[in-house]
Amino acid sequence: MKKERAIIIKDPRLRRVRNEFRILLKLWTSKVISDLLDKSIVYIENHEDGKLRENHNKISELKLNLELSICYCRSCGRDTLDMVYVPSMNQWICVECNSKRLYFAELREEILTEMTTMDIEDFLERLSGGEGVALSRFGSKCNGYEDSRRILDEMGIIKDIQDKFLELCGYYGGYCDCEILLNAAREF
């Protein structure tokens, strides 16, 4: 599909049927994978490497097809909600995760009108340097967003934009100063 598509079912009885169908499909997939794993044990005992590799390829293909299906949201894992297909992600996600995705995409655009990419790079560099979080193999000295707020203040970023920037960092997995460096930095 080339366009974003939403499959929304309003009738509660049809929702129940959809949810039961999803459960059946997942149970069937689990059963097939279990059978293939049982065969793998026999192939290992008989030293049949070719058949073992073929078996593992089938298992991987089944798992991938289930992950890419409409049966559950790849973002949150829920399987009882209406789904939206997002072509840029090539996956189905629930309507709630899609709403979040759209909100944070707009938030990112808003932040990029106030902060340049160079500002963000400068912030990340200062946060990882001596004036921010001291990450090392022995741990870090992380105190929530304390260093982030101080550095953003020094850069002249207004409080409203700071809050939005840190909210976006949280969405990317940066729930504190050190996690901004470990998780959120790669998203900018």
From TrEMBL:
Pfam families: DUF2695. This is DUF2695 domain-containing protein.
